[in-house]
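Hey, quick one: can you model this chain's 3D structure?
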Amino acid sequence: MRNTEMKRIALLVDFDNFNEDHYFEILFEELDEIGDVIIGRVYFSNEEGKRLANKFKDLELDPIYQLRFSTGKNAVDIRMSIEAIELLSKDYINAFCLATHDSDFTPLVKKLKENNRFVIGAGRDNVSRHFKSACDQFINVEQIFNAKKTKVVKKNVGIKKEIDEITKNIDQRLTELITLVNGIIDQNKESDGYMYLSRLSILLSVKDKEFNPKNYGASNKRILPFFQKHLSNYFDLIEEKNVWKIAIKPGAKAAAAPVVKKPRKTPRKTRKTSKSK
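Sure thing. Here's the predicted structure for all 277 residues.
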């Protein structure tokens, strides 16, 4: 179960693969809502990292260069794992965030959890599901970034195609989310068909470690306005004594998520050849 108390976080970044500026911005925004980053370290093994001292300083991350002693071995992974285990001795650290697109850290996640630490993963959408499910929470920086991008209106044809593809992906994930929520409500509803929204939120975060309304374009993580704005066609929400409850809307159980309508293509006009006078 996700613990809602503010965490004291040790942030360890695998800069050899987690190095996109826009992902760092999202990462820190999300961590600010989870707790305080007490220790921040960024690990790298390439020479480019040495030239980014000012960037790491701005991010308030301690740069750690790891020399490669042989080819074919991921020196950064090993160094990060060793130092994470060493940080377990610091009792004031009750959470770790591993920022990486590399699924090889899954055993480390399990070891940290065995020592009663809350573990947050952060990475792209294609990170292994084993790594995501091993974490207590996963920040999908790619989904959040793409959802933000859809709000930016641009006339560039190349950008429009990209936005259409992102929107299609969001619609597909909304369909999967509706199916998941339907199952949770079916298993936990009371005789009137409703269950507490707060209980749904807890169970949803357990079943889907990367659930975040921001992944679908919401402006914040609050679950109530997300359901009211994006999923009102599928679920009924009522307030009783300042407590919100949710139920599946009759006839909407098997419905698919709404697909954003694409602009209608206007028929191309045939260019008339001007006749010489």
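One thing worth noting: The longest helix spans residues 157-188.
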